[in-house]
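Feature request, filed as a ticket because there's no other form

It would be nice if the structure record came with a short human-readable summary line next to the tokens. Right now we just get the raw output. Example of a typical job, pasted below so the devs can see what we mean:
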Amino acid sequence: MKMRTSPSRRQSGMTLVEMIVATSVFSVAMAAIVGASIAMQTSFAATDDYFTGEGDQLRVMDYFNTDLRRAMAISISSNSVTYTPPGGSAKTYTYSNGSIDQATKYFTMVIPNYRNLTTNPSTINLPAPTSNKVDYGTPIVVCYYLLGNSLFRAEVNPNIPANDSRNNPRSIADNVSDFNISDSFVKNPLTTQTFVQVSATFAPKYSRSGWTAALKSNTANNRVGTTLGSKIQLRNIF
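Raw output as currently delivered:
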């Protein structure tokens, strides 16, 4: 007598063709998921780079514009500037530190010393009219310099010790490939003209190859769309 297995107890399996089809469908689905994930991450990184770069550009130009509007004397491509105060004689102010000799570009200026930082909280330095001009005493020395791909700003206040941390240079932007300050009438040191033109150039952020090429090359084509500038009136030049 032969025993027959009931249909409910039979075990069914996938044929080789079915397994190939299922594996193919799964592979296509996973490839689509991975591709979408990479695209989203790339888009997020590009958006983050865009806003980071825009913030750097706005911050740098805000520093440039604010300092240049207050400047009483400017020296281009130098870490020294000569300033003649109202009713006084000319004096040269020099900014130096351990790394500025390696800087590729810099410019220096003196601005009025509006506040006395020796008190806590700080107090206002009252102006002293001299020779029909306003004098705030010994000026503050401000120096911008490009070291590597970082743009530094140093502000040296004469009222506080030279080793005070407030006199230390600070990086105000990274991935800066170049900056320029110039005008068709600029003289060095600048003491008589009233307008200067300043710009900062940032390495591209949306292509790694383009970014790397811009950091290593001076080709103008690698700078397209990365330069921001303005023209400023020097209001305090005597």
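Something like this underneath would help us a lot:
The CA atoms of residues 57 and 99 lie 24 Å apart.
The longest strand covers residues 140-147.
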